[in-house]
Amino acid sequence: YYAWLYRGLTLLGIQRRVHPMIQKTLKRQDFFDTDALILERFSKKPLFARVPPAILRDLVAASFKQDARGFHLVFSKQWEALIYDKMTHTIGAVWQALRQLQGQVTLCKAEFSDVITPGVYRRLCRDFCHIRCYEITDSTQLLPFECPDILADRLLC
Q: What pTM, to 2 d.p., does this model score?
């Protein structure tokens, strides 16, 4: 129903204003004077609370580029917002593609994921026997950064 509703919002030209991730993305600060300010800000956010400090430093170094004025996001927040918009428009095609996949697929879902909701996860586990589903406890959508060893163990078994 969400994809159908989103198409209707698109016809009205308001989908970008009501999509929660697009609005959140476009409001995000994307420029900092120093990398220390980035680390300070990120380390205070609940989203990054489970990311070990050394990995958070690597994440910041990979996500920001320094120029003469300071540090800015490598990929613009407008580009990320466009990804959310396009992704929402193609969700039906994703479900169709999942049905056509051949071979074993491993899905590792973060317990506190904003992307894979509990309902979506139940549907994936129930309707797709070729998808091995694992929920990694005490993790968010930053799962690869929060517990890389657990994720690697799940993917390599």
A: 0.80
